[in-house]
Amino acid sequence: MVKKDPQSIKQILLKFDLDKNKYISQEFQDYGCRLAHDLNDEAHVSLYIKLAKEVDRALLEKAKNFVKGAYQVKSKPKLFMWKLKQLRDNKNNKKQK
To answer: Distance (Å, rounded) from C-alpha 48 to C-alpha 30?
Structure first.
């Protein structure tokens, strides 16, 4: 086992990118940003942060994986929102039965 020398505070702060992580303080915000990046839709990061906060994470993951597995997609965000709506409708129909 190799021990690493402790880093100084200065070294740690030099590696930290303040502009990149400026407004992310919660886990759901980070997830929303990563989701927007995966879907190539950085213009609507706030939408994905809101979804990450309010929608079941399993549904978001299923929709994201559906988009990643799709072939020759014209618009990843549109396909993601369509699949998410479909998954949410199925979940609500199961609850009503």
So the answer is: 10
Least confident stretch, 17-31, 34-48, 60-74 = 17-31
Question: From CA 97, how far away is CA 92, in angstroms rounded?
Answer: 9
pTM across the whole model: 0.74
Helices first, then strands: H and E counts in the chain: 5, 0
CA nearest 41: which of 14, 11, 49? Answer: 49
Q: Which contiguous run of DSSP H or E holds residue 44?
A: none
Q: For the chain, which residues make up each domain, given as ranges? A: 24-96
| Residue 67 CB coordination number (10 Å) | 21
